[in-house]
Amino acid sequence: MFPLELNAEENDKKEDIDKEKMALYKKTEALTNISWFYLAAIDQYEKHSQKETASDDLISITIPEINWFGIGNPSKDKTSAWISMFNGFGQDGNGDGTADPTDDEDILYSMASFIERQGKTRQDIKIALWKYYQRELTVQTIMNIAKVYQTFNTITLEDNDFPLPLNMNFSYKNTWGDARGFGGRRIHEGTDIFANYGVPVKSTTYGVVEIKGWNRYGGWRIGIRDVQNRYHYYAHLNGYQEGIEVGDVVKPGDVIGSVGATGYGPPGTSGKFPPHLHYGMYKDNGYSEWSFDPYPSLKRWERNARNSK
Q1: Which domain, by its residues, includes 216?
Q2: Cα distance between residue 278 and residue 272, in whole Å
């Protein structure tokens, strides 16, 4: 495993920001009884869903004005009592007498209070998230991020790993976007890493196993959703690591399966192409999900892994 390529000053700055965020999450948890890892997961999800460049604000959650001030509110008076008359979200989280939609503490406290009104159990929180976002993938992603944060008891999870052991023979080049013929005309949404049958395949990231099983294109495949709203797709596997199941939390370097040549047919089809790992990455912005070229990430992870030895 190895961290992102940040210099010492950048690492120190990020650690300070993470500590400040954690302090705010814990403070809000004490006030509302909504566990810090749910609040951190919502914040992280919104940070990586924003279409435009993120601001310098500590908290990335953005509550629309119509939600903050309430429907039919004729003014933007920031007093909590006035906002509550119009069933607005906005609440005073830091005790300064105003509910400011640009204040980090007010934003986090208001979101936590909205969730708290639904309840404090995991199911209650899922229902509250559905009411707010109205999108199943968003709810699932936030719950998965929360599960990872809860498991490792931190939000500082920036490590990655190369998906194959470096002491094995493998080769790959940038094939993203190349034409594919099986199943109709389509493009190649990933990078093929050629290796021998049975070579261990590792998780490249912290995340949760979202899907596992047969796909006629990908054969035996597994999908992992990470804490940055990205989906990692591992296909053509020969088999899975014993015991790994949907819902499991994984970290960089965890073995999840092995290289194979499965796919391009009904369950069990194998050998229609040389053994390799198809590795794909997909990004979600809160509205849609699309594939992007994983080759630059793979080269960086391989380089960093070799340098760390």
Answers
A1: 170-308
A2: 14
